[in-house]
């Protein structure tokens, strides 16, 4: 199997205020761990600039214009209490979108079996018309629509194991039965959405976990709620919103997972992709704010992608 990695120096140039958890050092930590000889087989590619028109797959033009106008010429502009933009944030987002869409192309053309995208800023909190939670545009949502529009995918499954609920992805696909959105997340926690009763048109599966839940209940949520729904849905593509802030070292939550849990969850989703999607799987970095926990978790995740 071929595992591809998309990265780009521009992702380091989305600058956030001092002390902000979503910072360039996150990618530096990932780069250091993936430079190990254990990852020599990774097919490394520089993220291309994306087609700006594809942003409209998930967001209306008026919102895109607002985000573009919010990017400052100098300094840091605050979009909300948590979310900021700096002079090269637009370029970083365009390359993140380009990487995600290129990854979809790769797995549909057979250039790669699976792909990991080490990009920032993250995207899963970005709703149709709202940038929030460190996120400007919803990269996973755009990639799912790209798979449908460019490659004729009839069903796309997005699985989000970030410790924070992906309210943006849920918002975008709330009434769309062609996209399955499954999320494990801590609750109560920001952004306050993600209750089991939030089901869309039957295509939304939320598996909220209480603080200090730990590995056993996380895995049970996968086995009892997420994986059976994927089996029923039979997706043509699996996309992972791969946040690693449920790790026990992370400062923003208390699910207390280990890197072994991410290895395990990756393996289960690869089995789903093997059964239904001709191995097509695209993983997009979301959260993860303790540098050691993040790098250990990414190491486990990418190692499993490489093992096939």
Strand and helix map with partners:
Blueprint lengths: L2 E5 L17 H10 L8 E4 L14 H10 L6 E2 L5 E2 L3 H21 L4 E4 L21 H13 L4 E5 L6 H7 L5 E8 L17 E6 L5 H19 L3 E6 L16 H18 L4 E5 L5 H17 L1
Parallel strand pairs: 1-2, 1-5, 5-10, 6-7, 6-9, 7-8, 9-10
Antiparallel strand pairs: 3-4
Explain this structure.
The chain is α/β, with parallel strands linked by helices and 308 residues long. Helix content is 37%, strand content 15%. It has helices at residues 25-34, 61-70, 89-109, 139-151, 167-173, 215-233, 259-276, 291-307; strands spanning 3-7, 43-46, 77-78, 84-85, 114-117, 156-160, 179-186, 204-209, 237-242, 281-285. The strands form 2 sheets. The chain has an 8-stranded parallel β-sheet, sandwiched between helices. A hairpin with a 5-residue loop joins β3 (77-78) and β4 (84-85). α3 (89-109) crosses α4 (139-151) and α6 packs parallel to α7. The radius of gyration is 17 Å and the shape is globular. The mean pLDDT is 98.
The share of residues in extended strands comes to 15-25%
Helix content: 25-40%
**Rg (CA only):** 17 Å
Q: Give the strand order of the largest sheet, numbering strands 1, 2, ... along the chain.
A: 2-1-5-10-9-6-7-8
Q: What general form does the structure show?
A: globular
Distance between the termini: 6 Å
> Which class best fits the helix and strand makeup?
alpha/beta
Task: Please report the number of helical segments.
Answer: 8
Mean pLDDT: 98
Order of helices and strands: EHEHEEHEHEHEEHEHEH
Number of strands: 10
What's the main sheet like?
Answer: 8 strands, parallel
Question: Which segments are poorly predicted (pLDDT under 50) over 5 or more consecutive residues?
Answer: none
């Amino acid at each position: 199997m071929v595992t591809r990695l998309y990265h780009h120096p521009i992702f380091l140039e989305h600058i956030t205020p001092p002390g902000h958890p979503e910072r360039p050092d996150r990618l530096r930590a990932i780069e250091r761990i993936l430079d190990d000889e254990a990852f020599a087989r990774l097919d490394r590619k520089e993220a291309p600039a994306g087609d700006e028109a594809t942003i409209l797959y998930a967001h209306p033009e008026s919102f895109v214009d607002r985000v573009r106008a919010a990017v400052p010429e100098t300094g840091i502009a605050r979009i909300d209490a948590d979310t900021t933009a700096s002079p090269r944030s637009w370029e970083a987002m365009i390359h993140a979108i380009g990487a995600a869409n290129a990854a979809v192309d790769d797995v549909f053309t057979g250039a790669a079996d699976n792909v990991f995208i080490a990009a920032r800023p993250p995207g899963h909190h970005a709703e149709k018309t709202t940038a929030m939670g460190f996120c400007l545009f919803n990269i996973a949502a755009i990639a799912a629509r790209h798979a449908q529009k460019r490659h004729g995918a009839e069903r796309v499954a997005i699985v989000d194991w970030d410790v924070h609920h992906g309210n943006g992805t849920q918002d975008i696909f709330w009434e769309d039965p062609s996209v399955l959105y499954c999320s494990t997340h801590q609750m109560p926690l920001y952004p306050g959405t993600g209750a089991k009763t939030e089901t869309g048109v039957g295509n939304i599966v939320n598996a909220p976990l209480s603080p200090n839940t730990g590995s056993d209940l996380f895995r049970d949520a996968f086995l009892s709620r997420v994986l059976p729904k994927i089996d029923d849905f039979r997706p043509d593509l699996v996309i992972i919103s791969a946040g690693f802030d449920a790790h026990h070292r992370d400062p923003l939550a208390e699910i207390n997972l280990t890197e072994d849990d991410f290895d395990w969850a990756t393996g289960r989703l690869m089995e789903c992709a093997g059964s239904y999607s001709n191995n097509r799987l695209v993983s997009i970095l979301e959260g993860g704010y303790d540098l050691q926990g993040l790098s250990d978790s990414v190491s486990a995740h990418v190692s499993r992608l490489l093992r096939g």
